[in-house]
Amino acid sequence: MGDSKVRKGKFGEEIARQFLLSLGYEIITSNFRTRIGEIDIIAKDKGDFVFVEVKMREDVDKWGLPAEAVTSKKREKMKEVALLYLQKQGVGEAGMRFEVVEVLPKLRKARLIRDLF
Questions:
Q1: Distance, C-alpha 110 to centroid of its chain
Q2: Residue of 5, 4, 14 whose CA lies nearest to 110
Q3: pLDDT per position as a tens digit, 66-91
Q4: 0.90 cut: is pTM over it?
Q5: Which segments of the chain are extended strands (E)?
Q6: Which residues pair with 104 in a beta bridge?
Q7: Phi and psi of 93, rounded to 5°?
Q8: Which domains does the chain have, with CATH numbers?
Q9: Are 49 and 42 in contact (CB under 8 A)?
Q10: Spatial separation of the C-alpha atoms in residues 56 and 37, rounded to whole Å
């Protein structure tokens, strides 16, 4: 992955973290990696574990909304990684959600899509 892409990804994730904090989420960890895949942000909100995918697009007219990039394959990987995380923490599956934070830098805004699946 190119240095510029990594830098943009970190920038988008930092915006997403600050946005989630402003909504009252507690950030537990970022970039939780396993052999299966990665979850960008793991947070807690109202007692639920929230597994967050961060997607950033600079040109929505050309590429579409960021959340459209969260494919069914990505959702399945997120579920698998989330279950590994909860297992590692010794916690059951109750109270878990999957969400997306769309970062639109040109518009200087972020948007939360709750309960993605």
A1: 12
A2: 14
A3: 778 888 999 999 999 999 999 998 88
A4: no
A5: 26-33, 38-45, 48-56, 96-104, 109-113
A6: 109
A7: -80, -15
A8: 3-113 (3.40.1350.10)
A9: yes
A10: 19
